[in-house]
Amino acid sequence: MTAKDRRAPSTPLPPLLSDVGIPKRMKPTGTFVFVLALALSPAVFIGAHASEGVAKLPAWNAYQCNISEDIVIQNANLMISLGLADAGYNYVNIDDCYAAKQRNSDGDIVANQTKFPSGMKTLTDNIHALGFDAGWFTCQLYPGSYQNEARDAKLFQDEWGFDYLKYDNCAVPFDNITRENIMGRYARMANAISDLSQSTGNPPLILSLCEWGREQVWLWGKRYGQSWRLTLLLFSGNGNLTYEESKTHFTAWALMKSPLLIGTDLETASDQTIEILTNREIIAINQDPVVGTGVTPFRWGINPDYISNNTHPAQYWSGESQNGTVFMLINTLDEPATMFFNLTESPWIRAGIQYSVRDLWAHSNNGTAVRNFTAYDVPPHGVVALLLQDAGDEPEGLWPPCAVTEWCISQSGVRID
Ligand SMILES: *[C@@H]1O[C@H](CO)[C@@H](O)[C@H](O)[C@H]1NC(C)=O
Ligand SMILES: *[C@@H]1O[C@H](CO)[C@@H](O)[C@H](O)[C@H]1NC(C)=O
Ligand SMILES: *[C@@H]1O[C@H](CO)[C@@H](O)[C@H](O)[C@H]1NC(C)=O
Ligand SMILES: *[C@@H]1O[C@H](CO)[C@@H](O)[C@H](O)[C@H]1NC(C)=O
Ligand SMILES: *[C@@H]1O[C@H](CO)[C@@H](O)[C@H](O)[C@H]1NC(C)=O
Ligand SMILES: *[C@@H]1O[C@H](CO)[C@@H](O)[C@H](O)[C@H]1NC(C)=O
Ligand SMILES: *[C@@H]1O[C@H](CO)[C@@H](O)[C@H](O)[C@H]1NC(C)=O
Ligand SMILES: *[C@@H]1O[C@H](CO)[C@@H](O)[C@H](O)[C@H]1NC(C)=O
Ligand SMILES: *[C@@H]1O[C@H](CO)[C@@H](O)[C@H](O)[C@H]1NC(C)=O
């Protein structure tokens, strides 16, 4: 899938893939907006199958329901002072628990006045974004939008001034009411947003499908939204990740082209966390304007034939990018490892070509790789992220004459392998 494929045709410059890491050039409007997503998850290690760990409710952040106008403004300011805004994080997401538990007598959602005393419109004079829910209620049982899609879309965009709707999948009405699957429930909101845009002439709200990767959302998400969550969310800065694990987690999320929703308390975030979250070379690939497809494993695990299991998921990944082939190596072991691969194990590498190596964490040029590459002393649970670029023909005289010696044969018919 290319980045272009991810866009609904009618939507101008949506956030390419992420709720957060949107370089300014990709902004949907001229206004500067932020995402501080309070959405994340207890997913600690990539590839550790989400199966058991998938939250029924999206556990969303350092704050959970304990949000307020002050917290949102404070974090928005920190996003600027800590350099996150400059790195491309340009939305602030409030997520759940912003509303009173009941709609008002007109049927509108009402912001909680204790938490947001100045009102939502005032808040969005500086900040834009929102979490909401596709069922009867939100995940925390605040009012959801089912059967109120048009009314709520209008409130969010026209009256409250939000640009971005993170729409969850909790509190699902009975089947004998919806007669729809997940896709159909999202279609209702997408249609409401589109109708509203057509009637007002304003650009449509950006719709972020927060349904946790259910029902192969990657196959249909682009019909309705501009961003869709595939799994649990970004954890860097929370929980018990080591520095190396936090780097690994961020790298995996970013290079798999996941939405980059920061879910940590920026006031207490460490310098290391901020360093990780602002790795511009990694974010650039997450936001690649040409290639939308993420990295995928070329070896699946460490068992015979490289099959994976829960404790030892794929270690060797690669993918295309605007500027070359991206490699991600993850040491899933509990001790340091030397990690070796032949370049042509990746489908995105040309045989007979040598490649310059850029280390996307060390931010250094690491010489030229001929046929293979070895990363030494990769820390336990650590990561290596590389960008390989065509550096011309490989030296003459290398043996064997085919890097992959499977049916390798000379012009005169002499088989080499
Ligand atoms: C909620 O946030 C306030 C201030 O932001 C803090 O003082 C309080 O301890 C938090 N409460 C909980 C239960 O986390
Ligand atoms: C608003 O939030 C406060 C603080 O969490 C809570 O005590 C209060 O009940 C909420 N008000 C409404 C109308 O839900
Ligand atoms: C839908 O199913 C529920 C639960 O079985 C039932 O109580 C309700 O009457 C049904 N509603 C309609 C409209 O058929
Ligand atoms: C962090 O580790 C402690 C001790 O093992 C554990 O009690 C706690 O739940 C962990 N926190 C998270 C967020 O995983
Ligand atoms: C490709 O390289 C250019 C020039 O350095 C840079 O501006 C751009 O962000 C890079 N693109 C990606 C996807 O890394
Ligand atoms: C996964 O495979 C590794 C390597 O063979 C093995 O040590 C480990 O016990 C396996 N884990 C599970 C949960 O099967
Ligand atoms: C790497 O290439 C060498 C030389 O062709 C071959 O012997 C080796 O088995 C390959 N290793 C892997 C992991 O593909
Ligand atoms: C890696 O490639 C080089 C050629 O550049 C070759 O000399 C070396 O034997 C290869 N290493 C392995 C382990 O295949
Ligand atoms: C690339 O070079 C830098 C600087 O020497 C070094 O710190 C880093 O470990 C190297 N990266 C790899 C993957 O070998």
Automatic annotation (TrEMBL):
Its EC number is 3.2.1.22. The chain crosses the membrane at residues 32-50. InterPro entries: Aldolase_TIM (IPR013785), GH (IPR017853), Glyco_hydro_27 (IPR002241), Glyco_hydro_b (IPR013780), Melibiase_C (IPR041233). GO terms for molecular function: alpha-galactosidase activity. One of its GO terms (biological process) is carbohydrate metabolic process. Keywords: Disulfide bond, Glycosidase, Hydrolase, Membrane, Signal, Transmembrane, Transmembrane helix. It catalyses: Hydrolysis of terminal, non-reducing alpha-D-galactose residues in alpha-D-galactosides, including galactose oligosaccharides, galactomannans and galactolipids. Belongs to the glycosyl hydrolase 27 family. This is Alpha-galactosidase. It comes from Pisolithus tinctorius Marx 270.
